[in-house]
Amino acid sequence: MPVAIITGASSGIGKGAALLFAKHKYTLSLTGRNTDALNEVAALCVSEGGLSADDVLITAAELSADDAPKKIVDATLAKFGRIDTLINSAGILRSGPVLESGIEVFDEIMNVNVRSLVRLTRAALPHIISTKGTVVNVSSITGPCPSEGLNPHHPSTILFHQPLGHPATVENDSQLR
Ligand SMILES: NC(=O)c1ccc[n+]([C@@H]2O[C@H](COP(=O)([O-])OP(=O)(O)OC[C@H]3O[C@@H](n4cnc5c(N)ncnc54)[C@H](OP(=O)(O)O)[C@@H]3O)[C@@H](O)[C@H]2O)c1
């Protein structure tokens, strides 16, 4: 069975992706910080997605932590032996008036939404290239749109399209999608 790592799997789009991939018979490596919520999603992937409990791995991790990419990739390989797909769905949204939003807000958004995405993708990529697999970055159609106040979330989503956005950026003959 193909193996998908899904970040942000405890909620929202990542949770929905987990159930969808379960129904498509992927084994799942789910990550987020909220262990209770991750366990609920894992149970859903079994009860509604048709997987066995052994087909779902949970790795609770703060994505911006130094050791998070290695922890998630190593745990996935130890359990399933391969990685076919990485769904980068973890993300945070902060917004507010410019004068009330310090640069630390910008830094937090960029750290979680962009830097952590790039670090995890780099850690998983050699294994995804070897399976001719797929990386999906969950972005936002509102990214290019002007918004009220300081909203670093929007520029952060635009960046998802670029840093690792084209297979040729990675390796010309990788067949990565
Ligand atoms: N929902 C929308 O309408 C929409 C529209 C456009 C774009 N997006 C983008 O899609 C992505 C997902 O959105 P969503 O609506 O699914 O959000 P959500 O329901 O708030 O879920 C966010 C997920 O990210 C995880 N997460 C956040 N910070 C983390 C951190 N520091 N370390 C590890 N995990 C972290 C959360 O896990 P824990 O809570 O377990 O830590 C949670 O599973 C975001 O990047 C968002 O900008 C969403």
TrEMBL record:
It comes from the Eukaryota. Transmembrane segments: none annotated. InterPro entries: NAD(P)-bd_dom_sf, SDR_fam. It holds the Pfam family adh_short. PANTHER family: EG:BACR7A4.14 PROTEIN-RELATED, ZGC:101858. This is Oxidoreductase.
